[in-house]
């Protein structure tokens, strides 16, 4: 069944072409389907057998089930593990805005990570730490991944501290000549969070009042208890017998 030729999918393009050429109203142009040009350039296959995806590593029949034989293998790079470790230890680095600008797509070839984390045209970020650590692991003999990470991490902390000092000094110098700085992004975010919290407190207070009112009304509307001396036992007996007969 897998090796049998299937010619019906290939005739879809021919059928649509015939319908477009033989229009009911000759002067009215019929719009071509979106997939028309694609099927023309890439016709469907006549064989239903699926090709085996490229194998990036030797398959292990014990660890890989036969049902996933045709599933593409996951492409894993060496930098992925280093990048995951860094951003796990420094999650706030992901919150820093980044601007990625490439001229010809070969900017990475101009970086020399043997000179440190600062590279021309690239701001200091977590990717600098990853590439610097990878360079040290490949070019310094006897160094381990953990040792390289600690070394680059200390360099990163020193540069971040230097940037913070320069930013604070520039702000103080600007304020000395009359500059005014508004609220920071963190202050704006905290104020918005406080507003939402106050609105939630008002809403929660109204909900509690409504629940309390319903509970109080349920207690006040409950009838008075009957007097045991006024209960007619014969009437209760007759009603109980009628209910028993209806259930039968």
Automatic annotation (TrEMBL):
Cellular location(s): Mitochondrion
Pfam families: MRP-S25 (PF13741)
Predominant subcellular localization, coarse grouping: mitochondrion
GO CC term, one of those recorded: mitochondrial small ribosomal subunit
Keywords: Mitochondrion, Ribonucleoprotein, Ribosomal protein
Region Disordered, annotated ranges: 47-69, 214-233
Keyword Ribonucleoprotein appears in the UniProt entry: yes
GO molecular function: structural constituent of ribosome
Family classification: Belongs to the mitochondrion-specific ribosomal protein mS23 family.
Subunit record text: Component of the mitochondrial small ribosomal subunit.
Name of the protein described by the UniProt record: 37S ribosomal protein S25, mitochondrial
Organism of this sequence: Daldinia eschscholtzii
